[in-house]
Amino acid sequence: MRHSVVTPTASLALMIVSLTACSTSTIIDEFRETNLDLELSDSEQVVVMGRRHAGEYETEPDFIDCIGNRLANGGKVSVMPEQQFLDSFYPWFEPRVAPLKLKRMSTMLNDPLIAERINSLSIRYLIWVDGRTETTEKNGTISCAISLGGGGCFGFSSWDKSANYEATVWDLKQLDEEGRVKVSTEGSSYVLAVVAPIPFIAQVQGDACVGIGDRLKGFFNHVEPEP
Amino acid sequence: MTICRATRYSRLVLLLASVLTGACSTDIIIDGDYPSALTRQLPYHVGLVLDDTFTHYTFVSSQEQDVTMSLGESQIGLFNQIFGDMFKSATRFNTINQASTSKVNLVVVPHVEEVQLAMPFETRLNVFEVWLKYNLQVFDSEGEPIADWLMTSYGKTQSRLLTSEKEALNQATTEALRDAGVRLVIGFHRVPEIQDWLASQQTSGTLAQGDSP
Known about the structure:
The complex is a heterodimer.
Chain A: H1 8-20, E1 24-32, E2 45-50, H2 61-72, E3 79-80, H3 82-88, H4 102-109, H5 112-120, E4 123-147, E5 150-171, E6 176-200, H6 204-217
Parallel strand pairs in A: 2-3, 2-4
Antiparallel strand pairs in A: 1-6, 4-5, 5-6
Helix pairs in contact in A: 2-6
Chain B: H1 2-23, E1 25-29, E2 42-49, H2 52-55, E3 58-61, E4 66-70, H3 72-86, E5 87-93, H4 96-100, E6 106-118, H5 120-123, E7 128-140, E8 145-157, H6 165-187, H7 192-200, H8 207-211
Parallel strand pairs in B: 1-4, 2-5, 2-6
Antiparallel strand pairs in B: 3-4, 6-7, 7-8
């Protein structure tokens, strides 16, 4: 006599996985030149940019958008979208020629053409974000089958993800580096398949975004941290 | 009745064959927008010769998977935009003969030398990559050759799982064309023969590209 497809063992496994799955751990290091908040008038803007000069990886545009949204804090900080900035200054911030060091940025600002555009758009701070999220380990398999009588998946799969990013804040008015935020997030995700696959996904990149975005918010004076 | 059934089967087979063939090939027309370049204009009239081989350029690859990419329209958009930004005025011509009979200081004739494509099934990486190689022939107002500039550019995309193959190829190729624009703005003035020509024209400065970072 068959009562249920899900056996007690599977239920127990499901419970254990539910309790332990999706956990992420985040380490944040912050360095600031000064304890004072950064000046930012209402008319001035901040730009968050991803580093894309390395051949083997590029900082994900959606991660940059996420930090920008977090930093904007519901409109309290004016954040110019990355693509808009890139198009406004084309080709000077494209991956091939974007300034990697502040010294180079300073040289670029000696060109009146670039300096005038920076002034006309009131861009005060440039925040460079370098890093990526990658899958570090993958285990298990899931098999799915379908027949006339129905179908289903069975198995267990898990993978670990690691997100490592560093944000560097440049003040384009003072031409100096105001600080750095480094975030390292790790997490494990699982998929348990008992007839139907049940995913337990760790929000590794999302947590890294929250970590780095909230710290960056703290750099600006009139921004209150979210509860 | 038998004839009718046979016709149905043959139609079905044809449909199935076309679906299977289509499943293994990718046809795409590259569609990208290119921003205006932030650069000082050179005080010259340039004739940009975009001939049929350039305006209708189509890349065809049949390695494991058939890929056909029409780059012509997108290339026209990029070159028109960049040369319009780089020079006081840019006039487009279809043939070099048209350009030689008009009053221009420089004539630029771009040719596509090579296109290379790397897809995830080839590289085992989760990216699409595109390399473009152009040969820009530059002539003076008398039709005398000034330079032959081989210029390469590169574009890639990620997130294979998030976009369709067509979207990914479009994105990678658009990035490569955008990179070609960077090379044009930054590198055109640094080609030694073109530098010499500019010097010979006794321009007051090498303008943004020469002096800029």
